[in-house]
Structures are given as structure tokens and as C-alpha cells.
Write a structure and sequence with these properties.
Number of domains: 2
Number of helices: 2
Strand order of the largest sheet: 10-9-8-7-11-6-13
Shape: globular
Length: 193
């Protein structure tokens, strides 16, 4: 049974907002993206349904029910490699634009700085407290098992910055030719640079 009033987020204490997933009422933290049934029992939240999103390149990203990225499941998920011989009859003509996910627009997502290391193609990031605003990063590395204590981020202008892994950030999976106009989680409102 879910709570009647939105509970605070167990991770960052922000007041959550009610959402409905697969017919069930849940609560989602607008600051960090974590989800909960709102019962106060962490064991209940283990039963939250997993969900997925498609990035701008058509790759599927799978999340645990609580909103944390499921990197293992995402890596194991069969992505379309366009190399299947059975699909040759359906192949598009060379130079034709690729399919567009029906009405899908990249979204602003709340992440931790350490999560940037799992983004393979780069993207837009706005680290909380950074006066620069949205910046396009081309790569980020962080391996705590190898002794890393900071995340090394390379921005598109060549600047390399070391950041603490835990601060919150907002991220959009989109190319460097566009820039997000949104500052809250939801549709990114991309515009051409």
C-alpha cells in the first residue's frame, strides 16, 4: 500500500512526486530520480518494476525499479546491430535518414557525477553549483576499484576537469550540435547551437 502524502526521498530528502507505473501509484524524486512505493520499507521497493528508455542513438538503457541505472542489464540487452542477414530485404537505401522514435525527445535526467562514466557517446551535463550551465562532455572516466577518487571529465572544448563522484548533475543524451534549454527533469527542449 502506498503512502497518501508524498514521502521525502530516502537518498536526498527532497519531497517526492506521485507517478503511476503499470497501474501502480509510486513516488519519484524530482531531484535524484529514485522511485519508491512510499511504505518506508526498503524491501518493498525491491519489487518496483524495471523500466527502460531509448537514447538519441536508439540504444536501450535499462533502469532498476528504484530509478538507478542497471548497467549490467543494459550491457546484456541485445541492441540492433544492423548486421542481421535476415534484415537485408528491409534495409534502407544508403543516405536515407534513420527512423525517428515516434515523438520521442531526449529528456533531462538527474544523475550523480560518477554516472557520467557510463555514457559511451558523450552528452550534455549541468553539474549542480557549476556556473557554466550546460556543457557538452565527450568522455568521463571513474574507476573506484582502480583507486580513482574523482571523476575525470573531458569537455568538447578540450578542458579536462576532475569532479567529486557524488554531487548531483543533470544530463541529456544529445549530440553537440544541439543544446538543452530545459533546466528541470523532463523534455530537454533542444535547440540548434
Amino acid at each position: 500500500m502506498t503512502s497518501v502524502t508524498p514521502p521525502p526521498c530516502a537518498d536526498c530528502s527532497t519531497v517526492t512526486e506521485r507517478i503511476t507505473v503499470e497501474g501502480e501509484d509510486l513516488f519519484r524524486c524530482p531531484a535524484c530520480g529514485l522511485r519508491t512505493f512510499g511504505t518506508g520499507d526498503e524491501n518493498d521497493d525491491q519489487d518496483l518494476p524495471s523500466f527502460s528508455e531509448v537514447d538519441e542513438n536508439g540504444a536501450v538503457i535499462i533502469y532498476h525499479g528504484d530509478g538507478e541505472p542497471d548497467f549490467e542489464a543494459t550491457a546484456e540487452f541485445p541492441q540492433d546491430d544492423d548486421g542481421d542477414e535476415d534484415d537485408l530485404d528491409d534495409a534502407e537505401e544508403p543516405g536515407a535518414p534513420g527512423p525517428v522514435a515516434g515523438g520521442w525527445e531526449p529528456e533531462v535526467r538527474d544523475v550523480r557525477v560518477k554516472d557520467l562514466a557510463y555514457v559511451l557517446t558523450g552528452g550534455w551535463v549541468w553539474i549542480y553549483g557549476d556556473g557554466e550551465g550546460w556543457r557538452f562532455f565527450t568522455s568521463a572516466t571513474y574507476d573506484p576499484e582502480a583507486g580513482d577518487t574523482t571523476v575525470t571529465i573531458t569537455y568538447s572544448d578540450g578542458e579536462v576537469v576532475k569532479e567529486e563522484p557524488w554531487p548531483q548533475a543533470r544530463m541529456v543524451h544529445a549530440g553537440p550540435d544541439t543544446i538543452p534549454t530545459a533546466s528541470r527533469p523532463g523534455p530537454a527542449g533542444l535547440v540548434i547551437r
